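Review form for a predicted model. The reviewer records the input and the model, then writes brief findings.
Reviewer: anonymous (R2)
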Amino acid sequence: MREITAASAWIGFDRYMDLALYAPGLGYYTAGARKIGDSFAGGDFVTAPEISPLFARALAAQVAQVLMLVATDQPRHILEFGAGTGRLAHDLLEALDQIGVAIDGYEIVEVSADLRERQRQLLAGRPVAWLEVPPTGFAGVIIANEVLDVLPVRLFARRDDGLYERGVVAEGDTFRFEDRRANEPLRAAAAQIETDVEPFVAGYTSEIGLVARAWIAQMTQVLAHGVALLIDYGFPRREYYHPQRRMGTIMCHYRHHAHADPFWLPGLNDITAHVDWTALAHAAHDAGLDVLGYTAQSRFLLNCGLLDLLAAEHTPAQSSAVHRLLSEAEMGELFKVLAVGRGVRAPLLGFAHGDRLHTL
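Model under review:
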């Protein structure tokens, strides 16, 4: 409320989302509420590593391949952004141990204090270090699983008389949307999308992830040699801005209840937006990184041997978990994997079949 008042009663939705998620001590990821867990253990949502350890074990095959391609005279590290409960790091390190792949260190960049504490408890005794900021000159594998969807986005609305930015104003003790004329950077970003797809009709509203593009561009400062694996839900641009998806993709999560009201219980809800994978691939390329592969999570995991792993330790529970990871009706198709890198030319295992780079 104070910031809205200080900003002449209006702030862009990207700033509202940033405050609701990351305001010190008050935001969703900086306060102490439990965030990740199944519906019995509490939390608001569950991620793939929490569903089954086979997710990390399949991912380990791709990580191992990249580590073998990194120059032997450089330390081999794994850097994870937004490590959640630490489950992916725990299971990935265990899987690499089992297949005899040694690493020189595992670093985590985590903004949530309570998640960082959960990670420390789970990873006690492991070669893990926590960083306040990303390193530079990194060699190895970078992992960002369900990170890009919680980076702030700008909302826009097309009207008959032009493009507007959807912002937030206070109304008593609550918030509501209010539109203002879009500035030049937002108009230019929207115009580029319209060039790639088709002009937005009046009444069309959606979002643009400019912060996510900047985050990808930052990888050129971080990654000296290796691959970044980005896993999240989203679409290529032509699907993202399809005429039938005229209300955008903003989604909130509270106690495993998904809803579209970002003003309900601000600071207690996760607020997300789907990923425009075309924009991120272009941002990586423009920053000087190689775009190495793009496919659905199901195809990536199958390429990495998930079904062989399941066959080796089949149980009804594991079979059900793998179904969630692979099914088109669950995570298999909605979630995608994008690989960008530097200095790695060999075809990547996870994209050996079903690579969809041509769709971006």
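Findings: The mean pLDDT is 92.
Further findings: The first helix runs from residue 2 to 6.
Recommendation: see findings above.
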